[in-house]
Design brief:
Blueprint: H1 4-13, E1 26-31, E2 39-43, E3 49-54, E4 63-66, E5 75-82, E6 88-93, E7 103-112, E8 115-128, E9 131-144, H2 147-150, E10 158-164, E11 181-190, E12 197-203, H3 214-236
Antiparallel strand pairs: 1-2, 1-12, 2-3, 3-4, 4-5, 5-6, 6-7, 7-8, 8-9, 9-10, 10-11, 11-12
Length: 237
């Protein structure tokens, strides 16, 4: 990761846990009320933070999520810049269980018409009869102006997170092969006209039931904030 704070956070995530990580079905992302730091608050109101995100190097740097409402809480997840241009995104989540390694995944980016598509793979819980198993599935954030985004009552255009249905093309170059889309699991919309609120987020369908597991939910949230950060870079340029 980039700076000293980012490197320290990455090391501490090795000791973090997914146990007890929960999110409301709908929440909002707020700017730090003091405007003194590149810090974001996740919750129902700025005065009721559930989790905090920090951008220690500003809009163009790494992203750190803390497991609580202050920066004194332990780091829970992080996204670091990768590649020569620094525009790649490597996501780190806590281990799935004691004695296991941290979850390291890359979020890729490709163009679709006039917008970008951000895709990633992560572990999900799957029910098979009375047994719950874990397997890796692929998902993508794609721009949307449909009803599910408009229902957030923010901007009429936002993003939706959907499953990517497995196919024979899955191992080929994603930039040339668009995979079929499945269930919509979450949406978010920008609130750029607000001085305090940055965006509004909502889990949908099986994404709202908790059945996909803590790792999936955390990945959905940290990638949402990272995609939002990438677009703030454009605004800040």
């Amino acid at each position: 990761m980039g700076g000293a704070e980012s490197k320290e956070a990455h090391q501490k995530i090795h000791n973090a846990t997914l146990a007890g990580v929960t999110f409301p079905s709908t929440f909002e992302l707020y700017y730090d009320p003091s405007w003194k730091k590149f810090k974001m608050i996740l919750g129902h109101a700025p005065s009721e933070p559930l989790y905090v995100f920090n951008l220690p190097e500003g809009w163009w740097g790494d992203l750190i999520m803390y497991n609580g409402p202050t920066l004194e809480h332990p780091p829970l997840a992080a996204v670091r810049n990768t590649g020569k241009s620094g525009m790649g995104d490597a996501v780190t989540l806590p281990p799935l269980g004691p004695g296991q390694e941290v979850i390291d995944e890359k979020m890729s980016r490709r163009r679709k018409g006039l917008t970008d598509v951000f895709s990633f793979a992560t572990v999900v819980d799957t029910r098979e009869g009375e047994k719950t198993t874990r397997r890796v599935q692929r998902f993508e954030w794609v721009g949307s102006g449909r009803k599910e985004v408009k229902d957030l009552n923010e901007w009429t255009h936002g993003w939706k997170l959907r499953r990517v249905i497995a196919s024979d093309a899955e191992d080929e170059d994603e930039s040339e092969n668009e995979l079929p889309a499945g269930e919509i699991l979450a949406v978010w919309a920008d609130s750029s006209m607000s001085l305090r609120k940055a965006a509004k987020f909502q889990f949908l369908n099986s994404g709202a039931t908790g059945e996909l597991g803590e790792a999936w939910a955390l990945m959905a949230v940290i990638t949402f904030v990272r995609v939002w950060q990438r677009y703030m870079q454009v605004v800040a340029t």
